Amino acid sequence: QVQLVESGGGLVQAGDSLRLSCAASGRTLSIYVVGWFRQAPGKERDLVAGIKWSTADTHYADSVKGRFTISRDTAGAMVYLQMHHLEPEDTAVYYCAAYRIGRLWDAINTAPANYNYWGQGTQVTVSS
Predict the structure, then answer these.
(1) 72-93 pLDDT, tens digit each
(2) Which residues 6+ apart lie within 8 Å of 30 measured at CB?
(3) What is the mean pLDDT of the chain?
(4) pLDDT at position 92, please?
């Protein structure tokens, strides 16, 4: 079992920055991928960014490339999502999620169904 707890959401203005944190506990994460998803009202849950715990390889959605950065702190078992130049379209509930990767060279899965462990979510609201 892997437990994930998000924090850091809030209300910000367009152009602001925000950092989300995900605290992981339970099993060792060395063979896991951790991703940040977001879901706006009436929309599907989409992967924003993902990172392989062991190699730090990353994947980003096109909509956030150049604005968001995912990183992990292996010692503290934390995953961060640094968000810059926030836009009203970034408003959503952000979720931290994880799955066990089959092979280290596999591509990061983008579908929510592939992720076995989820946090409770944290709301990010960007006002215009």
Answers:
(1) 998 889 999 999 999 999 999 9
(2) 53, 54
(3) 95
(4) 98
Judge whether 108 and 52 are in contact, CB under 8 Å: yes
79 and 56 in contact (C-beta within 8 Å)?
no
CB atoms within 10 A of CB 21: 17
**Which pLDDT score, from 0 to 100, does residue 28 have?**
78
Return the H-helix or E-strand segment holding 44: none
Distances (CA, A) of 89 to 39, 48, 63, 92, 103: 11, 13, 10, 8, 34
Rounded distance between C-alpha atoms, residue 54 and residue 108, angstroms: 12
Partners of 123 in the beta sheet?
93
3-state secondary structure at position 111: coil
Query: Residue 15 corresponds to which amino acid?
Result: G
Residue 49 corresponds to which tokens in the numbers above?
A: 């960014």
Signed CA dihedral, 25, 30, 31, 35: sign only: positive
DSSP assigned state of 120: -
